Amino acid sequence: MHELLIGLIVTAGGSLLNFISTKIYNSVTGSSKNFIWKNTYPALKSIQTPLEFEELKKRTRIVVIDDEDSFPISLFQAENYSIDKWAAVKDYSKLENGFYDIIVLDIKGVALHISVDDGLGVLESIKRKNPSQIIIAYSQHSFDLSKAKFWELADEKIAKPSDYLKIKNIIDTLIDSKFKPGRYIETLHSILRKNGYDEIEIKKLDKELIKVIKNKQQPDWSNILDFASNKPELVHQIITIGNTLLKFFK
């Protein structure tokens, strides 16, 4: 009886020690192991939901910002693309916060009210605030070499006027190649690394995003990003990219 009691105490003590150890390990490393040291949460990349192109197309919000009527909006609408048309930048916050997944941006005559560099200034500003934003530079003007850095930021360039099929091919290619959860995950990780955060913090962010996805809830960004509360631009970038990423799991 005495030996049985000692055995039970040792077993209970070992289980408690193991439980405490896993809690400490998870807290320090950002991992999600349970008491038998198996991961309770998979890697963020492993829960990607594969979507057919037609479904991706339906989910992709596109805005065309052009002071002329050269873009074949009606043809895209007839093919069930979700597409808006602005004659000039009228709601910059929507461009900056990732509301639109693809921005087709005329580089002349659309943004002088907010930037001396017009559309090119908007392009640079958006890419700084949200590096994952897909932007097509749209222009009938020859490329100004003095603005080379702006052009390099664009994901694609379209000369206008261009026919519907050429534009459609470019947009479809961008949807198929860049409007993917894996790309947004990689961008999030890259931004954190560039700001000096290690793999432990990256794992912690992944874990919190997985919780949001599994529980089908709205993210509490102030709690999730408490580690970066003193870096408002970084917080803005993560929230914008994170919200775009979560679109794939709704």
UniProtKB/TrEMBL annotation:
SUPFAM superfamilies according to UniProt: CheY-like
The keyword Transferase is assigned to this record: no
Sorted UniProt keywords: Phosphoprotein
InterPro entries given in the database record: CheY-like_superfamily, Sig_transdc_resp-reg_receiver
Record bears the keyword Phosphoprotein: yes
PROSITE patterns tied to this protein: RESPONSE_REGULATORY (PS50110)
Domain Response regulatory: 61-175
Domain of life the protein comes from: Bacteria
Sites bearing 4-aspartylphosphate, chain numbering: 106
Protein name from the UniProt record: Response regulatory domain-containing protein
